[in-house]
UniProtKB/TrEMBL annotation:
Domain STAS as annotated: residue spans: 421-490
Keyword Endoplasmic reticulum in annotation: no
Record InterPro entries: SLC26A/SulP_dom (IPR011547), SLC26A/SulP_fam (IPR001902), STAS_dom (IPR002645), STAS_dom_sf (IPR036513)
GO cellular component assignments: membrane
Gene it is expressed from: 106082722
GO biological process, one term: transmembrane transport
Protein name stated in the entry: STAS domain-containing protein
Species the sequence originates in: Stomoxys calcitrans (Stable fly)
Length: 551
């Protein structure tokens, strides 16, 4: 249903909406394996995404930086791979975190299923090999020089690459079906999958209590009200839409080719798509990078390609589910592992190290916390650390300091902040301006070219700073201060000296300038003057001082 909705509301021709590794993991963790919660999560997050698009909150994805996204994606890749190792080896995997699952599997390693392990590892190797085959190219690099047999060979290689999952599933299911018909049960199978299309209905807003059956192995189901279900979903109602938006925008950017991206429209499209999913008992659907890459390589021109995907899925549900029974679980695990393992973002470490090493910190924090803690807690901590970096940089603006002499011979001290004045940074700027002003009697000019905003706290501090300069008869001039910021400062009746061009600045400097005065006074003969060297001290009877005074 997500694909059908995206045909009409989507903006990216290559994008496809469906199950993804990240969406599946988040849905499982927040719904805790209960299908009613999963469907309700899909419905509520879809409604939230629609609301976010109405209020144009697509910009929130900008607060998740590239390093945090890379760390989160890498952690998810390892978590999902770990969750499938149990299907490859046939061992138990329990626990809520990455480490707990590995400890559980190691403790149960003596129950390894040899047949499943051999088949699973072999499938992983074949899938990775076919992935590289799909990227093989023969013939000259220039496309104009390719012969017909070069193009045909490249097309065959490409087709083998994108068909690798289906090829492995069909072959292994066929072998398994034959073995089962011979009464040989070598592998653990997927089992029965209900046939037919689900009927449209409202999402479950409560869970009815059902008694268990110990003989049949059916666990007891506890009843839950709507508020119990929402409370159990917790942070998921915020985290899932944010990650979905991040995935969607990432896919759109990857294939935009310079075209603008409407994040708000994409948010609306994915929200409506998931509401439609929930009406047919489906769970979260996000943008899939691998599927979209196949779309792009196939030469699609509009989002109508999603229609064909949707039709194929519906036909499979109607006609092929009886054959899904024979798919070995280890094959499905191999497919997932071979797909998500390439989502490890190790390739960003080297360029990040070269450009700005401090960006590695939020990325590493995201990676570690998502591995050792529940995923929702890890991503929140990583975003929090990233915001602390942003706040620190806004609280510590860079200020260039230089003494300038005009052609007319007037000197002044120029300070240039590189960003706006807001409450975290204004006290830092004030201390630096006062410290610089105390070291000289020259007029101080603050170049406000890059100060595009301010707040009430900044206005109070600026008013105090003006009074400090006035008490010591030192002029403080604001150069090129934007009218919107002037209005904020004048709200506290700050008496600003404003200049917007070189002529007005020189006039202000001229008013504050007087010729240097030569002052002589007597000092005791015993006074020692430190000349900068302990061996070079001498007495003096007079000291000549030159002082640059203001009026």
């Amino acid at each position: 249903m997500g694909c059908l909705v995206y045909v009409f509301l989507g903006t990216c021709k290559d994008n496809t909406i469906g199950s993804t590794a990240v969406a599946s993991l988040l849905t499982y963790q927040f719904a805790k394996g209960v299908w009613q919660r999963a469907v309700l999560l899909t419905f509520l997050t879809g409604i939230i995404e629609i609301g976010m698009s109405i209020f144009r909150l697509g910009f929130l994805v900008d607060f998740v930086s590239g390093p945090v996204s890379a760390g989160f994606t890498s952690a998810v890749a390892l978590i999902i791979s770990t969750s499938q190792v149990k299907n490859i080896l046939g061992v138990k995997s329990e626990g809520a975190s990455f480490l707990q699952r590995w400890i559980s599997m190691i403790n149960d390693i003596h129950n390894i299923q040899i047949n499943d392990a051999i088949l699973g590892i072999s499938c992983v190797a074949v899938l990775i090999a076919l992935r590289f085959v799909g990227r093989m190219k023969v013939g000259p690099k220039e496309t104009t020089e390719l012969k017909w047999y070069h193009k045909a060979s490249n097309k065959v290689f490409w087709f083998m690459g994108i068909m690798r999952n289906a090829t492995v599933v069909v072959v292994c299911a066929g072998v398994s079906m034959y073995l089962e018909s011979q009464g040989k049960h070598y592998f653990r199978l997927t089992g029965n999958v209900p046939q037919g299309l689900p009927k449209p209905a409202l999402p479950p807003f409560s869970i009815e209590a059902q008694p268990g059956n110990a003989t049949a192995g059916i666990p007891e189901v506890k009843g839950e009200t709507f508020f119990d279900m929402v409370g159990g979903l917790g942070y998921g109602l915020i985290i899932v839409p944010m990650i979905a938006l991040l995935e969607n925008v990432s896919v759109c950017k990857a294939f935009a080719k310079g075209n603008p991206i409407d994040a708000t429209q994409e948010l609306f499209a994915i929200g409506v798509a998931n509401v439609a999913n929930s009406i047919f008992q489906g769970y979260r659907g996000n943008s899939g990078l691998a599927r979209s890459a196949v779309n792009n390589a196939s030469g699609v021109r509009t989002p109508l390609a999603n229609l064909y995907i949707s039709i194929v899925v519906m036909l499979a549900l109607v006609y092929l589910t009886k054959y899904f029974y024979y798919i070995p679980l280890t094959v499905l695990g191999a497919i997932i592992i071979s797909a998500v393992i390439f989502q490890l973002q190790y390739h960003v470490i080297k360029p990040m190290w070269r450009s700005k090493r401090s960006d590695l910190i939020p990325g590493i924090v995201a990676f570690i916390t998502c591995l050792v803690m529940p995923l929702e807690v890890g991503i929140l901590i990583a975003i929090g650390v990233n915001l602390l970096f942003i706040l620190y940089h806004s609280a510590r603006p860079k200020i260039s300091l230089e003494t300038i002499e005009t052609m007319e011979g007037y000197k002044f001290l120029k300070l240039t902040p590189d960003r706006c004045l807001i409450f975290p940074s204004v006290e830092f700027v004030r201390n630096l301006v006062l410290k610089s002003g105390n070291k000289t009697s020259l007029p101080v000019v603050i170049d406000c070219t890059y100060i595009y905003g301010a707040d009430f706290t900044a206005a109070k501090v600026i008013s105090s700073m003006i009074d400090d300069f006035k008490r010591r008869n030192q002029k403080l001039i604001f150069f090129n201060l934007k009218p919107s910021v002037v209005q904020i400062f004048e709200g506290l009746k700050c008496k600003l000296i404003l200049c917007y061009n070189a002529e007005s600045l020189i006039e202000e400097l001229k008013d504050s300038d007087v010729p240097a005065q030569r002052v002589e006074f007597e000092v005791p003969p015993s006074l020692k003057i430190d000349m900068g060297n302990s061996d070079n001290q001498s007495t003096a009877s007079t000291i000549t001082l030159t002082k640059y005074q203001s009026k």
